[in-house]
Design brief:
The chain is α+β, with helices and mostly antiparallel strands and 724 residues long. It is 46% helix and 14% strand. α12 (372-394) packs parallel to α15. It has a domain at 32-182: Glutamine synthetase, N-terminal domain (Ubiquitin-like (UB roll)), CATH 3.10.20.70. One of its GO terms (molecular function) is glutamine synthetase activity.
Length: 724
């Protein structure tokens, strides 16, 4: 039997791999943000007047004097060119979960033909990419191409070093010629402004006289898989769909729980160190890294930053991860479920709200029952999740995340809030019209003299909750690993702004009736819990009993697929939320539904085509070749009077025929195009096409266990997942 060349060459190449030699690495204090045009660099490079103006804009969002832009542009160009940059780029964030950039040179020519450098304030402020070539949900027709990028001075510029040279990257918003947002940054900035306005109103009603600008903050835990890149070249599904569409479970998976927090493989450790050095140079505060649950799966988590900068850094982190992985001979996989049967990857978005005068408003302190600011803001979150749970589900909807949500590795598609024992008791007391002292977690005493006693948290954690309070922030655990954090942040900021406005209205009325601030606040929160307390749940989110009770008894929505969730963006409630907060116009919101629906449809269509193609041209021929070899061998042995059991051959023939029959049904389903609307098309893909894809896969994966190993064309899970 002849071996499969691509697969055998991949295995041979991997066996020769060794960790990259990074040489001596620089200490953190010398590389931190060295490639970032941040406030520290601006203070050094700008005049005092220009720096003062930029600092005010950077920290509070105050408008920037256009004359200052010329000063900043000149200093930025000088700084970038000193670092080897010959080009600059307006980097922006279209509705693709990826970044986009167009590079321009610091160059113009003189009448004498000499080349001179130029970078004016006008070039810094505005660029002009094609507005109809990016996803826009029919906001731009093909013939209406003009779009603009506009500098966002609240997110620092930086130098991106690649093997092709250094480029000055300038974070920007992206909008159409008619003024609609075509990106994820504009609504994020608007949502933060809406939240700040509503929060200021609540805090002032509660007696605060000095209230600094409020910002939401974000720290996103990024999970990912690494496989050797030579395997990817032998897997069309990984290259084109980002996941394995075929693959039988290996004998060993994650059942021993030995990979989670285990010793990091040497090649991976070197990759992580190289990655984090690159991140530090870009001012991205990578804080934690470790092995995740599944073999071949890992996590990196940055420290908290303001939401706008954190969103930009998250996009940059994913780019740098992929580039660095390639340099180390890896492929970095950000798909939510790249391997069936093992845990998928999420991006837990830790989110909070605060400012320089009141601090973190989601920090309960030692006595949460007495912390009125915290109670008001936490109550606003509870109301927001209850009112707009379908929105939170819609902003994490994707064809890839559907594979992960609801499995025993990720939160269910039902949005609920976990508060922990102490806080749940506080809010239930408020609902009952009383406030009692709550118990802290107490001291942890193991009875071992050498182990110091420490304060135990007042509540356990709940990994099955999609929206959990974790000490001084909420953790949105259902976000997918490949997704931009901007969508979830926009939704959370906007629902919080709306709920804070609602609380302010109620609080104003209570105060006018003569109540003091404490009594008025508790009266409003009592109403919150009476109307919205059904969303608070501290039990097992995976249990069938919860799924039944959540829908039938509590009135929460279960939206298991993107086909169920995305149409929620068209609901009057969500359209009204975005319109009254000024975050998205009805036209902008509808365009986003169209974009995300199209992405869902295209993703599944690409996968279905790949399933048909790979089953027909790779797996079926392998099965037929193996049958042919078996037939020839059996015939030769029979000539010698030796008979063999032919049950394996019969099984291979049965599974191969069944697979091709399923391929035929899948091909027919793909040909269907007579849908009444986009919603019907998505539902057909979710309910029918994906089922047929799974049917093809089931037979193919059985064939993998029957066909001779050396004839199987695709690298197997056991080869890809366990990094050497």
């Amino acid at each position: 039997m002849s071996s499969n060349l691509a697969r055998s060459q991949a295995i041979h190449t991997i066996n020769q791999r060794s960790p990259m030699d990074l040489g001596k690495t620089d200490p953190l204090n010398t590389i931190w943000a060295c490639d970032v045009f941040n406030l520290a660099t601006m203070e050094e490079k700008l005049s005092k007047t220009a720096f003062k103006s930029m600092k005010k804009t950077f920290q509070t969002g105050e408008p920037l004097d256009p004359a200052t832009a010329d000063v900043v542009a000149a200093a930025m160009k000088e700084w970038a060119m000193a670092k080897g940059a010959k080009f600059f780029s307006h980097i922006f964030y279209p509705m693709t979960n990826a970044t986009a950039e167009k590079h321009d040179g610091f160059i113009i020519t003189s009448p004498e033909g000499n080349a001179i450098t130029d970078f004016s304030g006008s070039l810094l402020i505005k660029g002009e990419p094609d507005g109809s070539s990016f996803p826009n949900g029919s906001l731009r027709m093909t013939n209406a191409a003009r779009g603009y990028t506009a500098w966002d001075p609240t997110s620092p510029a930086y130098i991106m070093h690649t093997p092709n040279g250094a480029t000055l990257m300038i974070p920007c918003v992206f909008l159409s010629w008619t003024g609609e947002a075509l990106d994820k940054k504009i609504p994020l900035l608007r949502s933060n402004a809406a939240m700040n306005k509503a929060a200021q109103r609540v805090l002032k009603l509660m007696g605060e006289t000095e209230v600094a600008t409020l910002n939401s903050s974000c720290g996103a835990e990024q999970e990912y898989f690494l496989i050797d890149e030579t395997f990817a070249t032998a897997r069309p599904d990984i290259l084109l769909a980002g996941r394995t569409l075929f693959g039988a479970p290996p004998a060993k998976g994650q059942q021993f729980d030995d990979h989670y927090f285990g010793a990091i493989p040497e090649r991976v450790q070197v990759f992580m160190q190289d990655l984090e050095d690159k991140l530090y140079r870009l001012g991205i505060p990578a804080k934690t890294h470790h092995n995740e649950v599944a073999p071949g799966q890992f996590e990196v988590a940055p420290y908290f930053e303001s939401a706008n900068v954190a969103a930009d850094h998250q996009q940059l982190l994913m780019t740098v991860m992929k580039m660095t992985a390639k340099a180390h001979g890896f492929l970095c996989m950000l798909h939510e479920k790249p391997f069936a049967g093992v845990n998928g990857s999420g991006k837990h978005v830790n989110w909070s709200v605060g400012n320089s005068t009141q601090g973190n408003l989601l920090d309960p302190g030692h006595t949460p029952e007495e912390n009125l600011h915290f109670l008001a803001f936490c109550g606003a979150v509870i109301r927001g999740v209850h009112q707009f749970g379908p929105l939170l589900r819609a902003v994490i909807a994707s064809a890839s995340n559907d594979h992960r949500l609801g499995a025993n590795e990720a939160p269910p598609a039902i949005l609920s809030v976990y508060l922990g024992d102490q806080l749940e008791k506080v809010f239930n007391d408020i609902k009952a019209g009383k406030i009692l002292k709550t118990e802290k977690g107490g001291k942890m005493d193991l009875g071992l003299s050498q182990i110091l006693h420490f304060e135990r948290d007042p509540g356990d954690r709940n990994r099955t909750s999609p929206f959990a309070f974790t000490g001084n922030r909420f953790e949105f655990r259902a976000v997918g690993s490949s997704q931009s954090v901007s969508g979830p942040l926009i939704a959370m900021n906007t629902m919080l702004a709306d709920s804070l406005d609602w609380i302010a209205d109620k609080l104003e009325a209570e105060l006018k009736s003569g109540k003091d601030v404490a009594t008025a606040t508790l009266a409003v929160l009592k109403v919150v819990m009476e109307q919205h307390g059904n969303v608070v749940f501290g039990g097992n989110g995976y249990s069938p009993e919860w799924h039944k009770a959540a829908v039938e008894e509590r009135g929460l929505k279960n939206l298991p697929t993107s086909a169920d969730a995305l149409p929620e963006l068209l609901s009057p409630e969500i359209a009204g939320l975005f319109e009254r907060t000024g975050v998205l116009t009805p036209v902008e919101l509808h365009s986003r539904f169209e974009v995300y629906a199209e992405q869902y449809i295209n993703s599944i269509d690409v996968e279905a085509k790949l399933v048909v193609n790979m089953a027909t041209t790779m797996i079926y021929p392998a099965a037929v070749t193996y049958l042919s070899e078996l037939s020839a061998t059996t015939g030769n042995l029979q000539d010698l009077g030796i008979s063999l059991d032919n049950s394996v051959a019969q099984s291979v023939a049965t599974e191969a025929n069944a697979m091709m029959a399923a391929v035929g049904k899948l091909g027919e389903a793909r040909a269907k195009h007579d849908f009444a609307n986009v919603q019907e098309h998505m539902a057909f893909l979710a309910d029918t096409v994906r089922g047929l894809m799974n049917e093809v896969r089931a037979h193919a994966d059985t064939l993998e266990t029957l066909v001779a190993d050396e004839m199987w064309p695709l690298p197997k899970y056991s080869e890809m997942l366990f990094i050497k």
